[in-house]
Amino acid sequence: MISKHKRTGAMLSKYTPVLPAVILMLVFLLGPIIWSVYASFTNVSLVGATAIHPQFVGLDNYVAMFKDPDFFKSIWLTVLLILFSAIIGQNVLGMFLAVLSSKAAVPVRKVSEVIIVLAWIIPDVVGCYCAYAFFAGEGTVDTFGSFFGLDLSSLLYDHPMTVIVLANIWRGTAFSMMIYQAALNDVPEEVVEAGLIDGAKPMRIFFSIKMPIIKRSILTNLMLTTLQTLSVFSLIIILTGGGPGTNSSTLPVLAYDQAFKFSKLGYGVAISAVTILIGGIFSIVYMRMLKTEKED
User: Fold this and answer.
1) Is the dihedral angle over the CA atoms 33, 37, 40, 43 positive or is it negative?
2) What's the whole-model pTM score?
3) How many degrees, rounded to 5, is the angle at CA 99 between CA 95 and CA 100?
4) Torsions phi, psi of 22, nearest 5?
5) What is the DSSP string of 171-185?
6) Phi-psi region for residue 249, left (φ > 0), alpha (ψ -120 to 50) or beta?
7) What average pLDDT does range 102-123 have in this prediction?
8) For the segment 47-99, what is each residue's pLDDT rounded down to a tens digit?
9) Which domains does the chain have, with CATH numbers?
C-alpha cells in the first residue's frame, strides 16, 4: 500500500509542473476547437434570431460548402500559397541564405542577418503595410518599373497571389534561415573534413553529407512553415482583401468573409473546421516522415 502511495505521489510530482500548461491548452485551444466543431453543425449567425437561438442543421453547412465553387477555389489558392511560399520559397531561400551566411565574412554576415531577421520580427501589421507600400501603385516596385517603361501600378489587382506569395516569402524566410543555420552549425567538422580528404566537391559535400545529417531539421521546418502559411490572414487582408473578387481568398480569408461579412457564422466555422483538418493532415504526414527518419 505504501509503495502504491509513493508511486502515486511520484506521478503527481512528475506531472504537476506541466498541469497549468495543460489546463491553459484545454481552455484556450481545445475548448474553441470543440465549440467550432459544434457550431459548424448549426445555423448560428452574428445577427438575427439565430444569433441568440441557433438551430442544429446537421451537415447542411458542409453540403453547401462542397457545392460552393469558391470553396474549391480557396483550397486551390491555399495549396498554391503553401507550395510556392512555404515549401519552395521559404525553405529553399532560407537554406540558400544560411549557406551563404556561413561563407561570408563576419561583418557582412551580421549586417545581412539583421536585415533579413528584421522582416520577421517587426509587428505583423507593420510588415504587411510595408509589403503593401512596396507592391501598391506608386510604390517601390511601380516606381522602379517606370524607369524601364513598365506599368506595374495594378500589380496587386492583376497578380494578387503572386504578390502574396512573394510577400509571405519575405516575411517568413528569416525563420527558415535561422533553423538551417543552427542545423548546419551542428554538422560535425570531422565528417566534412573526411569528405574533403576523399576529394568531394563543395556541392557534393552539401547534398551527400550535410543534407542527410540535417534532414530532421528540414522536415521540422517544413512542417512549421506549412502550418504558419496555412493560417496566413492579415497579410492577405491588407494586401488584397481577398480580391479582386475571390482571386486571393484562401481558406482563412473565405471563412472570415462568410462569418463576419455575410454573418453566416456557422458556415464560416465549417470552413475553419476543414482548414484545421487540412492542417492536421499535413502535420500527420510530416510527423510520419520524421518518425521514419528517426527509425532509419
Assistant:
1) negative
2) 0.87
3) 115
4) -65, -45
5) HHHHHHHHHHHHHHH
6) beta
7) 82
8) 888 888 889 999 999 999 999 999 999 999 999 999 999 999 999 999 999 98
9) 1-28 (no CATH), 60-295 (1.10.3720.10)
